[in-house]
Amino acid sequence: MRKVAIFVFFLLFSSIFVFPPDKAFAQEETEMPASPTKVEASDTPNDNGHSITVKWKLSADDGAGKNNVVVYEVLRSDSPEGEFELRGMVPAGESVFEDQGAKDRQSPNYLPSHKKFYYTVRAKGDGIYSDSEVSAPGYAYGQWFHTGKFPVFVAVLAFSAFALIFISLARKGKKLYVRPLAGIEAVDEAIGRATEMGKPILYIIGLGSADMIATIASFTILSRVAKKTAEYQTPILIPCYDAVVMAVAQETVKAAYLEAGRPDIYKEENVFFLTSMQFAYVAGVNGIMLRERPATNFYLGKFYAESLILAETGSVAGSIQISGTDEIAQIPFFVAATDYTLIGEELYAASAYLGREPVLLGTLKGQDWGKAVVIISLILGAIAASLHFQFFLDLFRVQL
Amino acid sequence: MGFFERLLKIDRRIIFTLIAIAIAMPLFFDVSMYVETTSEVRGVFTAVDTLSAGSKVLISFDFDPGSMPELQPMAESFFRHCFSRDLKVIVMGLWPQGPLQANWALDVILNEPDIKAKNLQYGVDYVNLGYTAGNEVVIQRMGSNIHAAFPADYYGTPLDDIPLMKGVRNFDNIDFVYNLSAGYPGTMEWVQFAADRFRATLGAGNTAVQAPLMYPYLGKRQLVGILGGMKGAAEYEVLAQRPARGVRYMFSQGIAHAVVIFFVIVGNVAYFATRKKRKES
Amino acid sequence: MHPSPDIGIWIGALLTLGIFSFLYGDNPYYKFCEALFVGVSAGHWFVTLFWTVFVAKMIRNVEIGLNTFITQGFSAGMADYVHWSYIFGGILGFLMLLRLFPKIGWISRWSLAFVVGTTSGLFFINYLVSNGLRQVEKSILSLGAEFWFGNLILVVGTFCGLIYFFFSKEHKGAFGGLARVGIWFLMITFGATFGYTVMSRMSLLIGRMDYLLGNWLGLIG
Amino acid sequence: MRRVLPFTIVSVTGFFMLVQYFIPREEFEWIYEWTLDWIIVIGCFAMLLGLYSLTYVSVNKVRRKTPGWGYNLIALAGLFFMLIVGFVPGQESLVRGSVFMHLFEYVYVPVQAAMFSLLAFYIASAAYRAFRARTVLATILLVSAVIIMLRLVPLGPLSGINQWLANFILTVPNMAAKRAFWIGVGLGATATALKIMLGIERTYMGRD
Lengths: 400, 281, 221, 208
What we know:
Largest interface: C-D, 116 and 121 residues
Largest sheet of chain C: none
Largest sheet of chain D: none
Number of strands of chain C: 0
Number of domains of chain D: 3
Shape of chain C: extended
Oligomer: heterotetramer
């Protein structure tokens, strides 16, 4: 009984707000648009717990009847009788509004999660409006799993499963076939040429940082090349663009010389930091090429606009050049000006092919199976799309 | 040695001099070449042309001085177009030198007679938010709250004291986003976060090298249009009926490209003519 | 011919000519400009990174965290971990510097591990989603639609391209044929990129010529 | 301690960043933003490392008077002048009009632009010397490049056909091959990232 009394009192009380005296009586009963109904406030799914979604049934006068609803205003308050604050507007015809709050405690728009909020929706014409009842309390909370990202979850599991299966197969000694790569077969021959001519080898790891995938693939190939130069006692020059890459290169080469049983002829100053400016670096490398005249140049890793100058100057100096990058904008110059080019994924495969380690071969096979799945879904997708099977297409739809 | 052998053995410096002349000579002639406009450039132009006065436009300078000859004419013609249509311009940069280059472009446009007459106020008609490190994370944070991503503008004044930024909380309050990009972070990140995730209307201007990479993003609510290299800049100027540096450079580009194609043909003819001899030796 | 009065433009022009002299051959004028550029650029990068990242990100956040400690006492300070936690970034960064001292250089591996670990986790998702899933989503095209011819070539091109990048099967017979078609498609793309790049490089040179002939010597425009 | 801890850090941070993608909760979002900011801060210290190595190499060369030491001196002078002008006036050095910015505008910008425009000369010489129709593949690359380049050359009636052809190349075969390339690179990069997280790929850490 007490609840009803409060409710009635509230209705009277809020009506004063809703119908300010001077306007209330002048406005006829008929002009006022019908108020929206069934207002519900619930947590916005798949979010960090600072946003509440408000839904309601359109006012009877929206698109029909008096049809004088222009906009819906959503108001929020901490308690049913409390003071309502405008949170946002939505044009007529729409019945959903997301009350987005900030997660930062200091920000003025902070919306704490797990706190109960009450909403009312105001159907508004020009100057006249009517409010819905106050909704049941709703509160925001963070979800533990983003359902929109399910396709990615499946892809991650499938991809990791492929890789792990093939790695364990490789570890059990199963013979895994990888097709020969033209660029890689030329590595030994190119190093041999440098030894005959008694000239150094120039190895450029590219402009990428130590954690970039192309740079890491380049490290693996460098370790194999350095082992070869240790055996043939040919000097190897590695001017570096990034301090961390320099440090890692020094250790890779030192370890390779150790493995080849020639730690004595390893010279730390051959792996040096030149500059971290793209074009100062390329000018410096050009100077080295023209002065030292290396017999073989390796450009393996992340390259940008300077790739053409390196390849062009290298060909002027008459060296054999083996290049490889995953930067698609630079591959045309490497294809045009160098002798062998590892295109995109071939650079990653080269580390597996060269290393011949079972584990690297295993991941490469896992990748190939991933590609096989992509190829199959490409064909099925084309068929499904032509016959309009929407279900199949949604499998790949990812909500960010 | 036959004519073709000598042709193959041409000293590189002769080629360099030829190219230098091919580029420099056309700059002396004031020829306004016919530049055919493509649909991808019209996409960006109409997106800006249909905005009502006072709507807010965000332009992000994500390139360094090395790409200025291609992207600075785009920036200048974009500013001229926005100010002539009384749009509010918000400038930012995901590359450190971006905001500085924006100021150079603003100096050029704000001193043009018809724009100068409007005596636009900093902080009311245009604002420069400066650079923040963080690449695509900055765009992500702007999606929820621009004031968190850019606490202060290029000159250090807090965003809350800037009138223009008052009503701007995230991409819902921005009518058009334009990104001038020369690499990473650039248009790909703006498509992934601003367009895909926060539904912003996005147009882009790219260097000629990057432009073909962005074609797959045209349409499908990702990119309304794209300007590629100097040709894109010239097309935008022609659409705005204000030919400027873009068009003047296009004549020089035309000659330079003709010379390069000529080199390709001559190089191959000489190569094939001498192939038989090389096989014998 | 009215050369520009601005000393800055003169310096820029003389340095530009110095770099262009490299085309003639490696010479002292070029080496001077290269050396000056190496020093100035390294200095510029370090100062810019210092102010825009080190101070703006770490020092400012730690400062805010500290004064919550001072003004609102210990418990409020701890609650404001959002800000003072940036000190960990600084500590990891400092550890990176220990690489300079051979004896305790191995500690720097912790910060390298942090960087490489975080980026590899990010790369795993970013590449799988934007390069893998998103591209597959866009490659599924209907062959019944009105521009079916374009779609057919698109699907065939992507299909053969993927076959080329297949490593577990020798490129022989029918499989080799498909791979050959794939590399043809790739060569068309590389040709298009080469063509586009010529345009962008020429624009750079035009920009420099405009600077030398226009801004510096005032001969044109 | 030397080898086990770094690789555990790599696996832990790697798997955390992988898992946080699927968990929208607030705590994970905070940690995601912190880790990215910390990496940028670490980048600054790595830059300091590079600067130290550059100074160390240059000072040695100047002291030992190796040939060309004069240029190293100029590089050092340029570096320290920029550091002094960059730090002394505090943060204002980054705002336009300061000596630091003048050096940027009149030394850094022109030289970098000049360096980039060297590429135009090199591309012309590559077009003449390296751009041969030796094989079928090289011919396809050459023909496709020339069609795209012809878009800029005013050919009168011919340019209409060339424009259509170039647009076709750009929107169909170019996109098809790029998708194959991106999917290939995408899977390759994901595999390498997995190898790093599982501790299979260790070369970047080097061996002690």
